[in-house]
Structure formats: structure tokens, C-alpha cells
Please model this.
Amino acid sequence: LFFVGCGATPSAPKHRELAPPVVADVPSRVDAVRPPPTGGAKPAPILEQLGAELDRSMKELAKQPVAPYFASYEVNDIATVNIEASFGKLRSSSDTHARTLDVDVRLGDFKLDNTHAVADRMAAYGDRNTVTKRLPVEEDEYATRTALWLATDEAYKSAQRKLEKVRADAQVSVAAEDRSDDFSREPPTQYYEPPVVIAIDRAVWEPRLRALSAELGKYGDITGSSVTLSSNATTTYFASSEGARYQTPHPHIRLSISAWTTAEDGMELHRFEAFDVGRLDQLPADDVIRAKIDVVAHDLVALRKAPVAEPYIGPAILEGKAAGVFFHEVFGHRIEGHRQKANDEGQTFAKMIGQAIMPAFISVFDDPTIETLNDEALNGYYRYDDQGVPAANASLVENGVLKTFLMSRSPTRGVTRSNGHGRRSEGFSVVSRQGNLVVAASHTVADAELKAQLLREVKQQGKPYGLLFRELDGGFTLTQRFEPQSFKLLPIMAFRVFPDGREELVRGADVEGTPLRALSDIMAAGTTVATFNGYCGAESGYVPVSATSPSLLIKHLEIARHPKAQDKPPILPAPSTDSPR
Amino acid sequence: MNKLVTLVVLAFSPSLMAEPWEESPSVRAMKDELARSMSRLALPDASKPYFMSYSLYDLQRSQVRASLGALVSSTSTRSRSVDIDLRIGDYSYDNSNFGDGSDSRSITLPVEEDYDTIRRDLWIQTDRQYKRAVEMLVGKKAVKNGEAKSPDEVASFSKEPPSHITELHAPVVMEQAKLEALAKKLSAVLRKNRDAYTGAVSISQVAGLDYFISSEGSASVQPVSFLRIIVECGTQADDGMPLHDGFSVYVTKPDQMPAEAELIAKVEAASKELSALRTAPVVDDYAGPVLFRGIAAAQLVRNLLAEDFGGTPAPTSRPGAHGFGDSELVGKLDQRILPVGVSVVDDPTIDHLGKLALAGASKFDEEGVPVQKVSLVENGMFKRFLMSRIPRKGFEHSNGHAASAPYSSPRAHPANLVLSSMKATSDRDVAARAVALAKEQGLKYVIVVDELEAPEPDLAAAVVKRRYADGHEELVRGARLRSQLTMRSLKDIIAIGNIPAVVSYLGNGGSRYGTYDSSAGYSVSIAAPSLLLRDADVKKPVGAQRLGPLVPRPTEPQ
Model:
């Protein structure tokens, strides 16, 4: 998506989250629910077909001069429903059903194979390690296996060309600093849950969304808005030549509220909230949704009148969701295992295992097996990753000391095994990614005390005001070596906090910084914990993630101007408020 | 509304049927927002619009794909969009036809009919278009100021009488389940052929109504629809050469749709041809006469000539900007571009040529102008252009041929282009002439083209044969012809048949732009009889072929 196969020079990897979710009034705890395994279902016909065709292909390809040592098929059966209402009327209502196939074939051996990074990325352009196709959505063995057969042939030939380039590259390039293997050995497992079905009753949902979306029509300053129900019922079927087989459901339902407007100076403003759940009955009642719509509308009206933020540096509080995104960008992307390895990566933390990289009261882990945390469903929940490895908790930082990385089956210095974080969306090759990132503080202070500490720090630094960030849109980070090792957060609800405790909303305040400095600047944590549910985009596509953190007090945060459109607001008033027709 | 013919199979129900169409909420919303914008939409230092129009397309779009008898995807969505044309300045000089010709004047409306939400959407987008128009006019003036005044300077926008056309026949549409069944049934034919490694059938259906209202008082409505079936199959020859076969069917009226048995027969023929291609000899380099037969002749006209009849001048552009170029026919007025006796007309007022269905028929074009028959080439001489409301020197008025390629504003494009000759002979005579001509040049055979490789998404592969003196023909593979030919090749047509064939497709502005949205564009038919070119090159493929599949094909489970 970003720097895989994208052209002349590797472009900037941008890790950007879409859309935050609900603010739940969470207690100051890390109360995780990890559901026990519920396997034992009957494998679906498609999974049997994947296994049979994979076995046949491996047997036949073994006759080739260069035989594959590994191959896997991953099929995602994806059924979506999307219903969007705006100002009391349906804007769109659609559904889709598709089956995608990702074929991975590895030639060479665990030590060196076709997936090995080639210094000259252009030379390897076009030879993908993963081949993607659409499959029939019907159970039709012959049509399905014919598609598998052709895709496997294509993947094998692509891997063959790529392996030649890898071997040629090894002849001319200096030895890599990290001489880890290309693929880790993992025991294959079998696990079968029933496929997921989400039944959306349009006769119920269409009127409900109409009614909810009408609420936003009461605010004349809002130029556009929508209330949307998106349901995604994905069942993943995975088979590898090592004998791994799994069938797992990934239900995701999101009810989102979105509204936007333009300030007098042309700055485009928007506000987004969402409820993310795994089952329809977990969605909140209308009064809860209406209250959230109210927050969205009021925030947007306030933002329209808010002053524009000026570049500034000073102490700041990041409330839970903002702190979660902060950790996702500043830390999470930099401890992805493959980034410790690639020669063009910044490798900020590659050699810091065992070293203190943040204050001792902070611990960080990433655990995809948590389904709900503090009673909130987490977006990054899954049982098996996209390489068939069981998801496991990665205890990344213990009392400020770096312990390990997020690992796929691509080993790196000192970490030879996967911890089930190899992820991708359909059509991409797997790399290590975050799932459910959780920041825990061994001691916290009450929220009022955190604010008091902020004000003391404002005084200490001789600043006119401190900063407070409540809601973020997302952020991105640059990790490649030729780029500045930096991150950017995109706050929506940002405040100046004056020495007398008064809070003033400002708009257009982007947070910028560098990772090592930012982490060492953490001063204290508050008791309130919150979760950001979103989607993370990187070289292996968009994957659902969450980030949970207590509020954090940061000694110095820098804000920069947000880019803004130059168009003035609409010249004529909204038709509904225009006097004579 | 008793004149409404309800042929509707699926419940396609534009909500305006219950009342006069001009009273429907969306049309009222368009009229009201248009009136308000015309009278009051202005920035302090810029003038109000002098012209505005809204085109509403209220459509049901279906896409179905099946592979080897199994369904791969099936979607059906209601799609309502409005194209906005907003002009500031005046008829003689305005903001239009500037830049690279691309634009974003289209908005998607809610699927539900509602006066307030539609007006709100129109308000926001009209405001945006107005601001773009102000920018464009300033930019265009700046570019013009840096150029010497051209003697070919013409007005920016032609004056045309407003149109009032009411055609409310809802188009016939096939139900989704029937589309799915058809795609499965047709692709199942290819399943039986083990040579066909891939065998897919894609069906697109778009059907609905097109409304046009303008500040000049135009208020018109007409049905729009098309149904397109694309059949593709592929394999590899034993030497590794990838081979494709297939065809497309494109119709705009239900009575034009071939019967299922006929479609199955066509798929069977394509399947057989694919197998035949596997063992066919590879084409050799060839220079000599080439006979374009059947739809290959119509495809030739499509590729070499059709879009160049569009007379819309190239946009004024900033130095170095890329965009639509001028037609190759500029400067060739009254010159011979085709052999003596050949005429070309474009007639969007007809939907059949004899028994052959034509897809380009409509009542009014995308600028609301009633369509007209235009005589383009007379006795081989180029006589006039197809025009939209953007004039060209000597062509000050529209002839109702405005259409838009995806993501661009309307320009003149062909609709139903018909090439014929007063000197036509029977196809047998044309073939005999071809063989004789080849013999004169010392060639053992003449190359006959039955189908040209078509640009995506039609995906037709070239079907090329060698025809020998005794009349027998031999299929060859690997020929690529399109790139070897230019418009000039058509001056050297030396024989023309008397039975036309038609190729119909979704136009996308010619090959200059790819179609990102394969269901956006305008319907075109090209009709031409067999054409014998005096001299053309055919090249054999160069370079090594890839290996065929290494693993044997899976077998059909019993």
C-alpha cells in the first residue's frame, strides 16, 4: 500500500488510523476478558478444498528443480452491510459478499528465501511474495480448485524469479547487520470455529438510522453529517503445507457518527465517534447514541468558533484515547519486528532490548487475545494471525525496560519466534503489526491531581498555558532511515489550559515529535483509562487495532499548524435557513 | 401518466411516477437551488453565474461475475448522481474548457428522495463549483493574456433553444437473480472445456432516468440504460503463449438482447476457437493487403477514426499541462480522408440499422440539446464535426453530441456512427480481390482479421486468419495489429463490402483515458462493412514465452 511495490524510491510509510470510537466511562483498571477456545466445529468445505489442493500442489511442485519448502492459502469470506443515513433520510444502503484468496509460496529455506529483502527494491518490483485472487462465493469445488491451481502456479513462478534476485543481491551487497533467518519454525495447529453470520434486519435498521441521523439536522452550522451502520462478517480459512488449519470468525459491527463543517477562515472541521462491537446486541441503546450525537454536534459547533492554535511547545495532558494513539505511533510502530531488520528502517529500538526506554512506572503489552477490556470490545481481537500462528500476549515493556518486539514469523536479533502478530489485509504480504496495545501504569494519580501537576509544570516552565488533548482523529509516523524519525498526531478536541485552570478549545493543533524524547518525557499517569478503536494502515494493508492507555502528563509536546483548505465557507446560507424561497 | 409503459421486470420505481415529473422532490430541489444560485450566488469581486444546469441520473446499477459456472460477485445498487455545469462570464467568454479537461462536477445524492437533503447537497456542491469557476476564469484569462490572439477565436458557449422533452418509459431491467443465472450458465459452457484455464462472464446492467434542467429553461427527461455481457476465456499454448478469446455484447434496449440460446452458441464458438488457437500456427511477419471482415471493420473505424470526429476544441491549458488534444481531423475540412464514394454519418435518432441494433440512440445529449443526424464524410471528403455547445470556428452550434468520459466535462463524441460506400461490392468479391492483390505481391495468402484486440474492458483478442487462393482459411495466433495502423491507413481502402456489422460499447473518450469506473461512459455503436486495406503490417510476437502451468489441472469431482 505504501512502500511495497510503489515506484522509484521507497515512499514514506504512513501509519494512519481511521476514526476513533466511544468514550466509555471506564474505571482505572486493566480488566481483560480472554475468551476460552471454542474450537471443535466442523471444517467448512472450502477449508477441505484448500487442504486438498495445497497437498496436491506441494507434491507436484516437489518434482521441480527448486521445490517450495512452504506454502499457505488464506481465504477470507467477507460479507458486508453498509447503511448510511443523513439528515433523516437514507443516503445509501448496500451489501457485498466476496471471497479473497492470498497464496504465499516460499522457495529456498528457513535461513534464506524469496521473501528476503532485496537492496534494490526496483529490481524486485513485480515479483510479489503473495498472489491474490477472487474466488467464487459459492461452494463449487472445481471452480475453486481451478482458481487455486492458477494462483499457486503464479505464486510459485513469482517466488522463483524473486529468489534468483535475492541470491544475486546476496552476492553484491554487504552482509546484513541482522543475520536472522527469513522464517521461523512454528508448530502447526488446527482450530475450527463455526463461520460467522451477521443478520442485519433492514426493516429495523433503516428507520432507526433515519431517526438518529435526523438529530444532526437541528444544527444549522453543520454542512454535512451521517450516521452509519457497517457490519463486516469475515470468516478466515487458513491452510499451510506444514499442516496448520484454522477457521475463525471475525465479526465487526460499527455504528458511527460523522459530522463536518467549514470555519470562517476555510478550515474544514469534522468530528467522528463510533461504537465498535462484535455482536449486534452489544450496541448501545438509542439514548446512549443520541447523547453521543449531541456531543459530536456540540463539539463541532464549538470548534467552528474556536481560535486557531499557534505553534507552541509546553507541558500537556493526553487523555486515554489520545494517549493510546500516542503510544501506537510513537512506540507501537517502532517495535514491529520486521522494522528491526530492514536496512532502510530507522531501527530506533533494535538494540535496546534490556534497556530502559521510558519511565519505570510504565509497562506496555500487546495482546490480541483480549476480546473486551474494561467492558469495551477491542478492535484488535483475533485468535490466529495471518500466518496461522496462535495470537499471544507480547510483553513489550516491563517497568520501563524493553523486553521484546511484535513478531511475525520473520525472526530478528534475539527474538527467534513469532508471537502471533503477523497480520495483513487481503492482497498484502504479512508483516508484524499491532493488535491490542495496552499501556499500564503501576501507579496513577487522580484526574484532578494530574491537572494540578500540569498547572505546576506550566508555572515551572514559565509558560502562559498548558495543553490538553481529549479526542484524536489518528496519527502517523515515519520510520524509514532517510526520513526524520518522527510522528504526528491529529487531535480534534485540543484545549489550552491556563494557570487558573480555565480550558479553552482550539482548532488545527497538530502534535509533532520524535519518539525517544517523547517517551522519556512522560511524567505521570491518571487513573482514568480509555481505549481508541480504529484501523491501522501500513505496508501489509489496513488491520483493525486498539490502543488503551491511562491519561498521561507529558513534559513537552510541540504543536504545529494543521494544513487547511483555502475555500471560504458557503456563500449562501443553508437552503433550510434561507429566508425567502 | 397513462402514457407510461410499465415494462419493468424488477420493481424499478423512480418515485416520481405518481406525479408530473417536474413536481418530484428532486426536480423541485434542483429548480429551486438553481434559481437561488443564479440570482444570488456571488463573491464580492466576481459575477454571478450566467448559466447553470443540473443533470440528474437516477439509476439502478448491477454487476455480476461468474467463473466456470460459479458465482464470484453480485452487487446491485441504486445510484443517484447530479452533474453540475456552472458558468461565469458570458457566452462569448467563460470559465469552461480550461485545464486538463478533467473535473469533479458530479455529486452522489441520497438514495431516498427528499427535497431538503437534495437541496442541501446541491447547495454545498454548487458553492464549490462556483468557486472553482471563479478560479478557472481568472486562470484562463491569465493564460490567454500570455498568448497572441488567435484568428480562430470563437465563443465559449453556443446559444441553443431550451429543450422540453419528456420520455418517461422506464427501461426494462433484468432481475438480479436472472443476471446471476445467466452469468453462471454462460460461464458453465467454458467449464466443459479443459483448455479454458479461465472462463469468466461479467454482466453489467445500468438502467434508469436522466433529467436535465437549465437556467435557460430546459427541462427534459429520458430513459438511459445498457446491458453489457463480457465473456473472457484464457489458456496457454504448449509453447507458453498466453491466449485469450471472448466477446462482448452491448445493448441499450431490451428488444436488442440476443436470446439465451444464441448467447450460449456464441460462448461455445469462443470456447472452440480458444482450443483451436492452442494448436494454431504462430503468425509470421507480413506486409501486404489486410481484409477487415465483420465487426473487425467496425472496430477498425472505432480505433482509428470515431473519436476524432469530436470537434470540441482542446481546452486552453497552462503551459505543460496534459489533457485532451485537438482532433486529428482539424485542418482537414473538405479534404479526402476516405476513398471516393464513402460516407460517414452519425445518427443518434435511430436505434436500428436494418436489423442491426444500435446503442447510441437518445433524445437529448448531456447538455440537454436534442440529438441530430450529422453527415461527417461525403464521398470520401471530411465535411463536418460532431459538436457539443463548445464551438469551433465554422461550427458555431451544437449538433447534440455532448457526452462525457468518466471524470471529465462533456465534449463531442460519436453516438451511432455509420460508414458506408456507394461503391460497395459483395463480401465474396472483396475476399477475391484481397487474394488477388496478395498474389500480385507474391504472397501465398492474404491476412484476414475477424476481430481486433479491443481496449479494456471489452478485452476482445485479435482473431486473425490466413486466406489462401483456393478459399480455405487457417487460424493463426499471436497477431497484434492495432498499433500498426493509423487514420491514414483508411485512405487506402481498396474494396468495401455491402453488409455492415456493428460494434457497440461504452465510450470512454477514446484511448486517451482509461476507464476507472467500468460502468461510466456513453453508449456508442459503430457500423461498417468489410474493409480491404491495401497495405498493412502484421508482426509476429517477439521474446520468450512463459512456461505453462507446472502442476496438472485439477479434475472435475465426480
In short: Chain A touches chain B through 51 residues (CB under 8 Å). Chain A has seven helices and 24 strands. Helices of chain A lie at 45-61, 141-172, 202-214, 286-305, 320-330, 447-461, 515-520. Chain A has a mean pLDDT of 89.
